[in-house]
Write a structure and sequence with these properties.
The protein is of the alpha+beta class. It has a single domain, classed as Jelly Rolls, CATH 2.60.120. The strands form 3 sheets. A 6-stranded antiparallel sheet has the order 1-8-5-10-3-2. A hairpin with a 2-residue loop joins β6 and β7. The longest helix has 25 residues. Bound molecules: 2-oxoglutaric acid and fe (ii) ion (FE2). It comes from Rhamnella rubrinervis. GO terms for molecular function: metal ion binding; oxidoreductase activity. It holds the Pfam family 2OG-FeII_Oxy.
């Protein structure tokens, strides 16, 4: 967790409490939608949530916002702020491993980065249902802004630990590809969202390597093979076929 300037979150309150009827997933497909789980056999393999998922390359396109065109400007501003912060943090983490911070600029151009506005409709608190199923984020770094409702948990020492809402803080997660790049010095943490009797909102900014970047470890002996990201198995294809993403295993040597 890191301290953030409280006005930042207040300024973006309109986004955090975005209308629950943002452009439907169907109309949002043009901007990149989420995929379900065709292999699910139990309710807790589904996520009780909907998401407005928008690549940075489309953030200025009015068609992505449907009737909520007033959100466009604040989305652009929010994405620019998060992008700067994510790059700065990832740069510091890269420098900590003895690399130039510019390696992040070289690897992660905006073409693969995206924002996701998550909405978790109210549901009785239950261990049987997830707001968002356990997962790790796939990219380099995620910056997450959550409201005051709570429900986010992360795996620590084989136990789920609640990440208490703090309106003065942002949550920063390492993603799978940063774990691979750092040769496991940084770990992508598993997390999930539980349901809540109040509706909940969060916004995530995902800093991701561009599809034409070579992903491999920055240290020897490397635990992960170097491969062009576009040649590795597509996580979305896998989710729609086998019900879960392939994650880091696709890079292991
Ligand atoms: O809503 C949250 O707190 C978590 C969201 C998340 O993990 C994601 O969008 O990948
Ligand atoms: Fe996540």
């Amino acid at each position: 967790m890191m301290d953030s300037n409280p006005p930042l979150l207040h300024h973006y309150g309109a986004l955090l409490h975005h209308p629950s009827s943002l452009p439907s997933l169907e109309s949002n497909q043009r901007c990149g939608g989420l995929v379900g789980n065709p292999k699910a056999t139990r309710p807790n393999q589904f996520s009780w949530s909907e998401a407005f998922h928008i690549p940075l390359t489309k953030i200025s396109e009015e068609t992505c916002y449907g009737q909520f065109s007033t959100l466009r400007e604040v989305m652009e501003e929010f994405a620019a702020t998060m992008s700067k912060l994510a790059r700065m943090l990832a740069g510091v983490l890269a420098e900590n491993l003895g690399h130039r911070k510019e390696v992040i600029e070289d690897t992660c151009d905006e073409s693969a980065c995206f924002l996701r506005l998550n909405h978790y409709p109210a549901y009785p608190v239950s261990p049987e249902i997830h707001g968002l199923v356990p997962h790790t984020d796939s990219g380099f770094l995620t910056i997450l802004c959550q409201d005051q409702v709570g429900g986010l948990q992360l795996m620590k020492d084989f136990k789920w630990v609640a990440v208490k809402p703090n309106e003065e803080a942002l949550i920063v997660n390492i993603g799978d590809l940063f774990q691979a790049w750092s040769n496991d010095v940084y770990k992508s943490v598993e997390h999930r969202v539980m349901t809540n009797k109040m509706k909940r909102f969060s916004i995530a900014y995902f800093l991701c390597p561009s599809y034409d970047s070579l992903i491999g470890s920055c240290r020897e002996p490397s635990m992960y093979k170097s491969s062009l990201l576009e040649n590795t198995e597509n996580k979305f294809e896998k989710i729609s076929k086998i019900g879960h993403k392939v994650g880091l295993s696709r890079f292991l040597l």
